[in-house]
Every structure is written in C-alpha cells, then in structure tokens.
Amino acid sequence: MTECQPVTAQPPSGPVIGVDDGVLRFRGVRYGTAERFQPSRPVPPHVEAVDATLPGPICPQLGSRLEAAMGPPRDEPPQSEDCLHLAVATPALTGSRPVLVWLHGGGFLSGGGTLPWYDGGRLAADGDVVVVSVNYRLGTFGYLVHDGVSEGNLGLADQTLALEWVRDNIAAFGGDPGNVTVFGQSAGALSTLALLSKPDSRPLVRRAIVQSSPDPAIIQDRAKALEIGRYFVDAVGGDPVAASVDQLLAAQRQTLRWNAAKDPTSTRPPFGIVGLDIRLSDPLPDLMIGYTTQECEAFAIGVPDAEIRQAIVDQTEPLFGRPARDLAQRYGAYSYEFAWTPETGGYGAIHCLELPFLLGTPESWRESPMLGDTSWADVERLGAQMRLWWTEFARSGSPGPRSGFRIGNSPQTLENTP
Fold this sequence. Notes:
alpha/beta; Rossmann fold; two-stranded antiparallel ribbon; 12 helices; 15 strands; globular; Type-B_Carboxylest/Lipase
C-alpha cells in the first residue's frame, strides 16, 4: 500500500492541500457558497492553504430508493447545507490532461460527488485524465419551486458554477480547461443534457457522456412544480426559510408520499429540473449516450404488489432505452447498451450497474447487491476496458468502438450493434 503524502495545489481560487497515494486526491474543495433557496455564488480567493484531504459535505437528504440495489453508502461524508464542494483526482499537478466532470445521480434527491462510490482515482490513473466529482443541492434545497421562496433549478445553477470553477482553476491540477467532458448518470445525465441546452453553461463543455438519462419529457412544467411546492410548504407548517433541516426533510418525505400515492408506478421525481427545453444547437458537442438493458428492475426491487412491480419494470424501454437511441440518432452520438450481468446473484443489467466499473473503490462497492457474487477481479477486468473507452472519448471524441456498441458478458466484452 502506498503511504499517503501531503500535496498542495495552487489554483487561482487559493491553495488546497490533498494527499498523494499514487494518485493525487483533493477530496473537499469548495467551489461556491449559497444561502438557503438562493442562487449560489463563487467564493473569494483565499491566501492560506485549505485542508481538502477529507470529503466535502453532501446536501442534506433522505435515504436513497436504490439502496436495495446499490447497498448503503460506506464512509458517507457529513450532510450540510454548506455542500458546494467538489473532489479532484489527478495523476499530477503538471501537464494539460483531459478533464472529466462527474455529475452523480439519485433522482435529484440523494447522492453526492464526494461519496466514495464516485472516487475518480481509477479513472484518472488508467486514462491519464483529471476527474472532478461535484456535490450540488438536492431535493427541496436545490429544486423547490415556490413563489417568493425559491425560483427552482438551483442545483443546476450549482453545477454551472462548478464548471466555471473548473474553467478557472483546473490547470493548477494538471487539467486542460479547454477539453472538459461532463459525464453524468441518471439525474446527473439529465442534468448534463440540461447544461448543454443552456447558453451560460454550454460554452464550458466540449464533450459529454450521458449515462442512463430518463426521457427529457419527465422535466416538470412550472405549473406542476408550483403545485408540488405549495404542498411542501404547507407540510412544513411555517416559513421554509426559517425551518430546521429536519423539518424540511420531514416535509419532503411527506411530499414524496403524497406524490407517490397519486401514481405508485411513476419513477418521475417530484423535485428536479423545471421548465427547461432540452435542445442542443450547433456547434454540437461530441456525445456518447447509453443505457443499461434492464434499467427499471432497480426501481421494482421489494415492491410487494406484482402488478405495480411489472408496470415499473415495463418502463425501461419507454423511459430509458428508446429516448437514449433517439437522442443518439438525432445528434449523431456514439451509443452503447450496458448488458453485463453477474454470473450469480444480482438483479440483471439494472440502473446504476455500470458505476462500479468506472468509479469508486473496492471497499465502497463491497457486497453491493447489484454485483451479486462477482469478484472485484472480474469487475476490474471489464472496468479497465470501460475506463479506457470513457477516457479515450474525453481525449479524442471517440471511444474507439463503432458508433453503436453493446457491453456484455462475452470474453471480448464488446458486441457491435447496428
């Protein structure tokens, strides 16, 4: 085991201290600050070195609905509204490498870029790239819409601010600010498409990898978001600006139950991006778009009613598969289907299954139910190849395989598709 040594980077935002364990890791770098329900803003540069060796806090949240598939997060960072931090993993502080910026999933309700699941060390080392993993505001903290309280899409604005931080500071971590690939999964993938559709964030992105984005049609219109916001504020029972975090999370839980009762088969998150038209314009970024073969099996785990469970499972094609193929065709993107499944155990090629092959550590994914009885050595055999495809795309705009490919269990792992 490599002994960790301290290392200091000197970005324009101010010096930060990380660790060197073969890869340089800065786990808790602040990129912004925000008052509750207000837009985020950059922080002034600092002169004194700031300790970034520990993971930055993640947004306050309830448990994930996918814990039965992924397992509980291990060594979870603390939760705090002061969560606008990111993590950087880089082979060296010199040079000018491609940069991959990770936007985590979790239905806009849970997760965090500084979770060990999303450690970018393997990706950085294997591909000689810089990996940035972003925390952003979630749930009511990031996506409440209520007149006079919150305008909505604050989490999306946080992501834009993080990309601005990357543009201004990543050269000090050995990254090329002119070659930034945003890659996201699930809610992070839909966020990626949203960032490519917004004039303020589009110039900050050269390439994008869209992993398991739900159909952009799930984006709420403002009228529906306001209805949900009114119910939430009533559930708080007072001024949400002055309420405690626990009160806000309790009201969020009540709102989730109210929303789910109206359609127990729905996978649409009640809080999320609002009122945005996903439309990419010229010049188009380099794009890679894909999905897993059995996405919605993940949302059906443990659902007791057989009819509801099947209705959820049946949404894989209309919610994930068809929209991914349509988007790839419309924009001339590389497309993939992740069809690998555990030899024993697991739940098939479900939502989130590709993540351990790209990000995280052996400990963070230990005993993850969705991996079944798969050994970490087997995960690494396929993962090493996938990480090279992802990082080659970030470097050149092409992952290597032809425009449509299927990642499966065959020895060569890659099967061409029409």
